[in-house]
Design brief:
The chain is of the alpha/beta class. The chain folds into two domains: 4-226 and 426-436, Glycogen Phosphorylase B (Rossmann fold), CATH 3.40.50.2000; 235-405, Rossmann fold (3-Layer(aba) Sandwich). 47% of the residues lie in helices and 13% in strands. The chain contains 16 helices and 13 strands. Strands 3-2-1-4-5-6-7 form a seven-stranded parallel β-sheet, with helices on both faces. Strand 1 (36-40), helix 3 (48-64) and strand 2 (69-74) form a beta-alpha-beta unit. Helix 5 (103-125) runs parallel beside helix 6 (149-163), helix 10 (267-287) packs across helix 15 (393-405) and helix 12 crosses helix 13. The chain starts with 8 loop residues before the first helix and ends with a helix.
């Protein structure tokens, strides 16, 4: 039997010994041995949507395959060990080449680092029977250069395929992928999978246009829709109060948004324009007596919250800005509890939209990619979408007013859509069990 040291002591030192006991390579295990499942993705990055996607898959596997050993290949292994109590290893070894300023020295060392990362992937993935990429927009290059996640995905999928480990992409988002090198890397990774499903038809169509044969690929909703929904807090009471007084609590999901490539030179200007427009909209709400609850989807979004509050202290009249509150959240469950206290939600992040739908709230999207539009179109709410780069405040006000008038109609549509989503995800669970986890 291998010890924890055989799985790189530096990677798994914080993992309880019992959690790693019995980790043999797939070829070393007898035919009757318990299966080992790896979960790959940008997890432990303080993005609540990503963490929710991982949690949904872990809960499914622990329920349906309780005997299986799980481990995570992720961005921050310590965060996953603490939150889920499972072994976790980093996607890549951290390099310290930034201290070396001379390109002649730095470049070959970076190449050597990538070779070491590929070797590490081979050593670690051979222990797994299956590698699952659960949800998230894993096949887009939002904020990522080619040598970041695009290259990581290809290396791990290649290592898994060569090692005989099954690869499954489950309800993932795909596109856009702006950089041609990133596109080639990600499409090549997808070609290595034994199973692929997308969270919307647009993702599947994007991969088809990018050169992937998607004939046998399916479309199933985002896996986060499988997470339990918290019971609304005093929803009946708050509804009666808002209908009697006309004062609404508006959930506004803000994001640290710097443009598609956050490292671009004009990222600061994009961020400022986005917040200026949000401040104008919030001021409109405050002038009409409404309350505003600021929502986040990642810890970095607090920078946007602080910047928006600073603008409101300037533009809002008198003490109106005191009717703006911020909820402290650290998970999608917390986020849904905050949303339960709102009457309508306007948000940029995809999983803010997902959580609003799970809580059956009217929702307006200010999305940075087509994934938000595709999701609301599935619910019959495509008229409640704008793009974050170009949204018009007056149009947003009109969408808000119409959404309030049609609240009950929208809630009925969302409830029906949620039921359909659960049925579709149950079908995917059965496929995963029979085709990948059998």
């Amino acid at each position: 039997m291998n010890t924890c040291a055989d799985i790189h002591v530096d990677d798994l030192a914080a993992t309880p010994p019992a959690a790693t006991r019995g980790w043999l390579s797939r070829k070393e295990r007898p035919a009757s041995a318990t299966s080992t499942i790896a979960l790959f993705g940008n997890f432990g990055s303080n993005n609540f949507g990503n963490e929710g996607s991982l949690l949904a898959m872990v809960e499914f596997l622990r329920r349906e395959r309780p005997e299986a050993r799980l481990f995570c290949i992720c961005t921050d292994p310590s965060a996953i060990r603490d939150s889920l109590g499972m072994p976790a290893i980093p996607i890549r070894r951290s390099g310290r080449f930034g201290e070396l300023s001379h390109k002649i020295v730095r470049t070959p060392l970076k190449v050597l680092g990538r070779v070491r990362n590929l070797a590490k992937a081979f050593r670690d993935i051979r222990r797994a029977d299956v590698m699952i990429i659960p949800g998230t927009g894993i096949l887009d290059d939002f904020g990522e250069p080619p040598h970041g996640m695009p290259l990581d995905i290809l290396m791990w999928c290649f290592a898994a395929r060569v090692s005989g480990t099954k690869v499954a992409f489950a309800s993932i988002g795909a596109g856009p992928i702006g950089h041609p090198v990133s596109r080639w890397l990600m499409v090549s990774a997808a070609k290595l999978a034994h199973y692929r499903s997308y969270r919307d038809a647009r993702s599947k169509e994007f991969m088809r246009n990018a050169g992937l044969d998607v004939e046998n690929d399916a479309v199933y909703p985002d896996v986060v829709f499988k997470l339990p929904t918290p019971k609304p807090a005093n929803s009946a009471e708050s509804t009666s109060v808002s209908s009697r007084t006309g004062v609404l609590t508006v959930g506004l999901g803000v994001m640290k948004y710097d443009g598609w490539y956050g490292f671009a030179h004009d990222g600061g200007a994009v961020f400022d324009l986005y917040l200026d427009k949000l401040a104008q909209f919030v001021n409109h709400l405050l002038e009409r007596g409404h309350r505003v609850k600021l929502l986040t989807g990642e810890t970095t979004d607090m920078e946007a919250v602080d910047a928006l509050l600073a603008r409101l202290r300037v533009v809002a009249a008198g003490s109106a800005s005191e009717r703006v509150s911020t909820g402290l959240v650290s998970s999608l469950h917390d986020l849904m509890e905050e949303i339960s206290e709102t009457d309508i939600v306007i948000a940029t992040r995809f999983h803010n939209i997902v959580c609003a739908l799970k809580m059956e709230k009217p929702v307006i999207s200010l999305g940075y990619s087509a994934k938000n539009d595709a999701l609301l179109a599935e619910m019959g709410l495509d008229e409640y979408c704008q793009h974050v780069d170009t949204f018009d405040v007056e149009v947003l006000i009109a969408q808000f007013e119409k959404g309030i008038i049609e609240t009950q109609k929208i809630k009925n549509a969302i409830r029906a859509g949620n039921l359909a989503f659960m049925e579709q995800l149950d079908l995917q669970d059965k496929r995963l069990l029979s085709e990948i986890l059998s």
